[in-house]
Description:
The strands form two sheets. This protein has a six-stranded mixed beta sheet with strand order 6-7-8-3-9-10, with helices on both faces. Helix 3 runs parallel beside helix 6 (139-151). By secondary structure, it is an alpha/beta fold. The mean pLDDT is 94. The N and C termini lie far apart (40 Å). It has helices spanning 42-49, 72-78, 95-101, 109-122, 124-128, 139-151, 169-184, 196-202, 220-225, 227-233; strands spanning 4-13, 16-26, 31-36, 57-62, 65-66, 80-83, 157-161, 188-193, 205-210, 213-219. The chain is 38% helix and 27% strand. A hairpin with a 2-residue loop joins strand 1 and strand 2. The structure holds adenosine-5'-triphosphate and magnesium ion.
Amino acid sequence: MPLLEVEDLRVAYGKIEAVKGISFTVEAGQVVTLIGTNGAGKTTTLRTLSGLLKPLAGKITFDGEVINDIGAHKIVAKGIAHSPEGRRIFPRLTITENLQLGAFLRKDAAGIQEDIERAYTLFPILGERRSQAAGTLSGGEQQMLAMGRALMSRPKLLMLDEPSMGLSPIMMQKIMETITELKSQGTTILLVEQNAQAALSLADHGHVMEIGTIALSGTGQELMHDESVRKAYLGED
Ligand SMILES: Nc1ncnc2c1ncn2[C@@H]1O[C@H](COP(=O)(O)OP(=O)(O)OP(=O)(O)O)[C@@H](O)[C@H]1O
Ligand SMILES: [Mg+2]
């Protein structure tokens, strides 16, 4: 049984249907990526899986349970964490405080402290600056903080929405290396990216979204070598 199963999911904003019946699964331990151009419905999909948007139709099963109508807090408690598009860190709070907020549902102070230290091992720069306001971090460092914060709920599924957005090539590579490291530690990841090359090179499976539908699916390697993907998303002609 897959950890996450999305069946014929449809999501609308008023009368505008942004996701028009998509289906995919994520097996435990896998990295699955959704790629596609602006407005394809990638963020809408993640926000629906997080319980921030209600599906119009379809079925979302997570860890053996249908979670369509469960609120966002309960979904975090079930084990889905979301590092949102644009990071959404709290700029006036310190780095440590931002991480603590990711553990808002937990009561185990010692475990939380342990996980904060783990975040600082994964991202040493965050540890060095732990008492500073998060707003002083660079864009890439804020991305690290957003990922660290999402991990603070000890999720079974980590969802990352465009972690490489707006980053320099070096910082982007660092983020991708971290995702690879999390994968090697057994973290299950649903990765939304416009950087198709980077995402496909580390994903077990990928889905190409186009205006609310999944146009093409395959292993990361298959999609990376698919001619239409290369033309549309990898800048080749
Ligand atoms: N709050 C909203 N109200 C109305 N329409 C919305 C809203 N948010 C998104 N949309 C529309 O839904 C569609 C899908 O948007 P979504 O943000 O899911 O795409 P995306 O694949 O994440 O794009 P991007 O790569 O630019 O982040 C778009 O047509 C968008 O304009
Ligand atoms: Mg988006």
